[in-house]
Amino acid sequence: MNTSPVQYSSTLTEETLDLIAIALSQHGYIILENALPSKLVNNLLIAATEQAAQFKPAGVGRDDQHQLNNIIRTDSILWLTTSNPVESAYLIEMEALREAMNKRLFMGLFDYEASFAHYPSGAFYKKHLDAFKGQTNRVLTTVFYLNENWKKEQGGDLVIYDTKNDLSLQVKPEAGTLVVFLSDEFPHEVKPANKDRYSIAGWFRVNNSSLSRVDPAH
Q: φ, ψ for residue 77 (rounded to 5)?
């Protein structure tokens, strides 16, 4: 990932990165409130809303299997790029996370892709996995929320299902909250909200390229 043109340094501290690594190794997930600076959160929300016309309906599946299915999900997305300074700042934060998890957990993460997600009132994403063991190169999922002063009654929770411990985790989509979890371990869903809801979904990937097959960029 080439981030050199942007004069921005990651704000994730060594203590925070240690905490993430420990939680992933012990539980497979972590929910961090106020994970990144409020100024960056606000700028990301502005960047998302200013590009509203460029969002596209989100689909399910990848590559040849990609298709729209409004029974499963009804949000719209826009991929982040390094050409936008605000988006690049977020990607630099995630690059620091990638390097830290490789150093601490030897995960072999080599790439990261992320998109804004907009859920208008009533939109949802039914229960699903981001990856299936042995069938994908996505291994670590991130979700970052951009919604200031979000109230419980506004809905839109992320629900993460911990099948090993037979429980579910409710995550309010409050601005600054970062969720990180193993992509093939935790089914999850997005409940309908009654107002516009913005987030950034991302995936760290390992390199499954071979002589006969090259991993796609998205």
A: -135, 165
Q: 3-state DSSP call for residue 16? A: helix
Position 198: which residue type? Y
Domains in the chain: ranges and CATH: 14-205 (2.60.120.620)
Are 142 and 89 spatial neighbours (Cβ–Cβ below 8 Å)?
A: no
SS3 of the chain: helix, strand, coil, percent, to 5: 25, 30, 45
Full pLDDT tens readout for the chain, 218 residues: 444 444 789 999 999 999 999 999 999 999 999 999 999 999 999 999 999 999 999 865 554 444 556 778 999 999 999 999 999 999 999 999 999 999 999 999 999 999 999 999 999 999 999 987 766 789 999 999 999 999 999 999 999 999 888 889 999 999 999 999 999 999 999 999 999 999 999 999 998 653 333 333 33
